[in-house]
Fold this protein.
Amino acid sequence: MMRALYTAASGMEAQQFNMDTISNNLANVNTTGFRRNVAQFQDLVYQEIKAPGAPVGASVVPVGQEVGLGVKVGSSEKIFTQGSLMSTGNPLDVAIEGDGFFQVTMPDGTTSYTRDGSFKIDANGSLVTADGYFVQPQITVPQNAEAVQIGQDGTVTAMVPGSSLPQQLGQITLARFVNPAGLSPTGGHNLYTETAASGAPIVTQAGLNGAGTLQGGYLEGSNVQVVQEIVNMIVAQRAFEANSKAISTADQMLQTAVNTKSP
């Protein structure tokens, strides 16, 4: 059986994965803090027909003869470039301009990480995510507080009756990772979890030790560029069609061989 059939089939499978990745990027173009994925590919093993350097009489073969056996998906990597900032006018919304993640306490006590700063206040005045998870460090806003603000260094202040100066309620810290692409996206909540590949979190004040600054009243949009994804989609589609054509051509060659008969 012709190797081209299986080689081209692996190419079609790889481009299908590529299309799935692009579709997910486009579906999340308006998701706050979303980071686009990029599919990366690797070639499969080669069948060596003639090894380079093989002895031929008094000389050696100058170049080898190998046949590649297709492609596979190597990885699907998150690209952590900055998303555009959008003004919301909501003082509890906060965007990270630069590196870092907000820390979120999950119901089981573990910590997750997010770039989505669309925070809310629960019934007890605690600062939480849209899903009700506590922001770390936990900050409580008094019921009679007014004019809540989040500074660039993460300091949360509010005006309290009886005081002429803003009262500091706490400070939001950020977590950085040596390899943020190694974080595991949990899905459903715009959250990531730590893995052995990401390394341990480096917790620091916003604006220090390489961490970004915070912008209160803003949210960070997705870093998906629609035009770029459409171009990637066209390239993936053409590659899929080319591999499909290779299968069709290999099939025709096999048909010709099968139908060949001696006179």
Summary: The chain has a mean pLDDT of 92. Residues 3-79+224-259 form one domain. Helices lie at 3-27, 226-259.
